[in-house]
Design brief:
The chain is α/β, with parallel strands linked by helices and 309 residues long. It has ten helices and 13 strands. A nine-stranded mixed sheet has the order 5-4-1-8-9-10-11-12-13, with helices on both faces. A four-stranded mixed sheet has the order 3-2-6-7.
Amino acid sequence: MILTITLNPALDKSFHVDRLEPDHKLRCPNPLVEAGGGGINVARGIRRLGGPAEAFLLSGGRNGQHLQHLVAAEGIPLHPSAIAGETRESIMVVEAATGRQYRIVAEGPSVTPEEAEALLRAIDAIDPFPDWAVLSGSLPAGLPTDFYATLAARLHARGARVILDTGGAPLQAALHGHVWMVKPNLAELAALSGRTTLELDEVDDAARRLLRAGGLAAVAVSMGAAGALLVTDEAVVQTPAPVVPRKSTVGAGDSMVAGMAWALHEGRGMAEALRMGVACGTAATMNPGTQLFQPTDAHRLYQWLAAKK
């Protein structure tokens, strides 16, 4: 089983307006409301591929109850841990006249030390315990910067392979041998390398340094339209992104992680896992708003990439 862990989930609300204008009432259809947060999206993607994903999340207030209902309605087994603060909301406004997307993301609730201990106990109590765990998204206020490191160590001690998809100080703090794979984007890899930016021909060296420094089995770097790069001790593999009509990049990174986690859980090789990740991430860009990939698109793109290897 693959357990995804989302510590700062959100209710995602998407509004579509003809044009954004100040000081006017902008009338629009009722918003699309979805369960959001990196780990939740990864669980949704894995389930779309037929994989055994379950979702752990922090949940607070009415928003938390609504979010739980939305996750459960998608058939995803759910492990909520209660907090006193209200689960946050995120807002996306799509302007039809220009196609521009405006995203407003709230900070979210603060988690107390007692709630942090309770969530760790709740994860320890999950039975059966996962073979793979995906830690994805930002840390909420109140949790220490090294909380992902603490969580990864506990999961690792129970035999779970940990995939981490976050950025900044929480990512840096977790690189101490208990994380199996990380998935930085170009900006995150540059920051970890002490750089502002990286050229594409510098990515493999930067990823190798991160692999050695972090005691990792693999580093998968998402590079947008350039595809993705995977570095292990044995090999460096690059997979291009297929050219498709792009409608939105929201959810592409989570879709990539879902594709890779599903393939690895199925026992696929690393190169195959990277191709499935790129296929799912690219397929997600073919859909508008916050929608994830369609499985038929992902499998079709995977077959195309496999034929081009």
